[in-house]
């Protein structure tokens, strides 16, 4: 092949590349001119017809909406736009979580009475309740285990012997004669000089040990929880007088005697009134003595609470004695404190006319009662631990608020199953509906009413 032929072939092979390059340059030039022309036309139309041009753009966006964003993406964008609010919310919930965990830790900590610097017991609690009552013995033993010095008010030698048979050195009998009064209303009762000496003068457990002064933490008023029941005409006057004297008048007199000791040093202490609340909340029939006494005791506690809150000492400090009403429901203190009860036997002491008139409705009301009147297995009660914790928390000084402000003890504490719920029912539900719950308007036979009444109250 000659050199001319080779030159001709190279020329033919370069033609496609030149054509491609020229065509690309021409296409780009055309695109630039077309884009320029479109821009000029759009700008001209925008000047004379702005609504048409922008309206078409909005229509185009509506025809092709953007892809919806997920919730995490929107939350993330909100956090980036509102960093200050985000920091405030995190601080609020973080602080709340810390306080909640702290309160739970406080509730779960062991409840123990404070001790003196030398390790001796210094907290004194007085229980004004009969040692024959299971609840009195249970509370006394629990407080003694938690480190208190417990005094139980006794009236007879037999009650003092019951305290001595417990064989606990820090559960002591306090023989208090209510017929003996101090020389002045504000004076100290002769039987209380021993306690007064403990809280006013330093005491040394043994020679060579640093002395300490005891502190009267509180007074627990616990009248008997057993009241006479039945129609008003069948309850003799002696029963009414005994009920009022032992469950209302005696607690008032004991409270009056202890007031000089409770306000002696103006330390934080409490007066606890414990009484059953279910029958009084519902105004239950055939429970006149219990309803009358518990409501009177509640009124006295409320009046005393207001009186102590208005009290101020000579240095201007308010009184630190709180009054706490502990309204009891159904409680199960354990098998060792259970006492078998036989209900309905009091009907045998009625006259034949009274038995015929009140007998059917009274026996029906026994089955309808929402309290454990048929024995400890009739209605399940709250464990005794709930009562022990409530008593301890009411005796000990309350914790300060998060702002450092001193708080008062709760005025009313509900303890036991049904105490709060039946209180709400008695306050808000109409009396006619409560009467139907209690069996008013029809007398159930004793053979088929037991299971139905219990089921009804458990459903409530």
Features:
alpha/beta; 460 residues; 7-stranded parallel β-sheet; Rossmann fold
Give the mean pLDDT.
Answer: 81
Low-confidence stretches: 372-378, 443-460
- Category from helices, strands and their pairing: alpha/beta
- The CATH topology annotation of the largest domain reads as Rossmann fold
- The amount of beta strand, in percent, is 5-15%
Alpha plus pi helix count: 15
Strand order of the largest sheet: 3-2-1-4-5-6-9
Protein name: DUF1776-domain-containing protein
Organism: Talaromyces proteolyticus
InterPro entries: DUF1776_fun, NAD(P)-bd_dom_sf
Transmembrane segments: 84-106
Overview of this protein structure:
The protein is α/β, with parallel strands linked by helices. The chain folds into two domains: 71-108; 123-459, NAD(P)-binding Rossmann-like Domain (Rossmann fold, 3-Layer(aba) Sandwich). Helix content is 51%, strand content 10%. It has helices spanning 3-48, 50-63, 71-81, 83-108, 134-145, 157-164, 193-200, 237-262, 278-282, 288-310, 352-368, 384-395, 419-428, 431-437, 449-459; strands at 123-128, 149-154, 171-175, 215-221, 269-276, 321-328, 331-332, 382-383, 412-415. The strands form two sheets. Strands 3-2-1-4-5-6-9 form a seven-stranded parallel sheet, with helices on both faces. It is elongated and about 140 Å long. The protein starts with a helix and ends with a helix.
């Amino acid at each position: 092949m000659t050199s001319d032929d080779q030159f001709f072939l190279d020329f033919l092979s370069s033609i496609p590349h030149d054509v491609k390059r020229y065509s690309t340059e021409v296409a780009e030039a055309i695109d630039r001119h077309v884009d320029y022309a479109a821009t000029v036309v759009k700008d001209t139309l925008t000047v004379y017809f702005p609504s048409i041009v922008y309206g078409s753009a909005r229509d185009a966006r509506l025809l092709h909406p953007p892809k919806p964003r997920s919730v995490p993406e929107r939350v993330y964008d909100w956090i980036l736009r509102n960093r200050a609010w985000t920091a405030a919310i995190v601080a609020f919930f973080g602080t709340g979580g810390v306080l909640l965990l702290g309160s739970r830790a406080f509730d779960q900590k062991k409840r123990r009475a404070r001790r003196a610097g030398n390790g001796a017991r210094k907290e004194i609690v007085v229980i004004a309740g009969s040692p024959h009552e299971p609840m009195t013995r249970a509370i006394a033993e629990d407080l003694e285990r938690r480190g208190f010095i417990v005094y139980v008010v006794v009236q007879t030698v037999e009650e003092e012997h019951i305290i001595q048979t417990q064989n606990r050195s820090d559960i002591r009998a306090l023989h208090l004669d209510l017929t003996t009064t101090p020389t002045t209303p504000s004076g100290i009762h002769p039987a209380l000089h021993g306690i007064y000496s403990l809280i006013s003068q330093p005491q040394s457990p043994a020679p060579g040990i640093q002395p300490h002064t005891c502190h009267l933490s509180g007074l627990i008023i616990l009248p008997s929880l057993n009241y006479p029941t039945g129609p008003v005409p069948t309850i003799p006057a002696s029963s009414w007088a005994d009920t009022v004297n032992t469950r209302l008048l005696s607690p008032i007199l004991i409270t009056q005697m202890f007031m000089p000791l409770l306000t002696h040093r103006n330390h934080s202490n409490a007066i606890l009134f414990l009484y059953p609340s279910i029958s009084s909340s519902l105004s239950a029939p055939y429970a006149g003595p219990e309803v009358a006494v518990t409501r009177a005791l509640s009124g006295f506690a409320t009046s005393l609470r207001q009186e102590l809150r208005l009290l101020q000492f000579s240095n201007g400090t308010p009184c630190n004695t709180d009054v706490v009403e502990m309204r009891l429901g159904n409680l199960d203190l354990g098998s060792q404190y259970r006492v078998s009860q036989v209900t309905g036997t009091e009907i045998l002491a009625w006259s034949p006319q009274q038995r015929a008139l009140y007998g059917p409705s009274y026996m029906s009301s026994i089955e309808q009662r929402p309290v454990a009147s048929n024995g400890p297995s009739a209605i399940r009660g709250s464990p005794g631990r709930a009562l022990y914790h409530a008593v301890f928390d009411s005796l000990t000084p309350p914790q300060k608020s998060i702002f450092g402000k001193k708080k008062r003890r709760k005025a009313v504490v509900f303890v036991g199953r049904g105490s709060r719920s039946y209180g709400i029912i008695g306050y808000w539900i109409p009396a006619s509906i409560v009467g139907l719950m209690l069996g008013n308007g029809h007398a159930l036979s004793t053979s088929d009413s037991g299971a139905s009444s219990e089921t009804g109250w458990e459903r409530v």
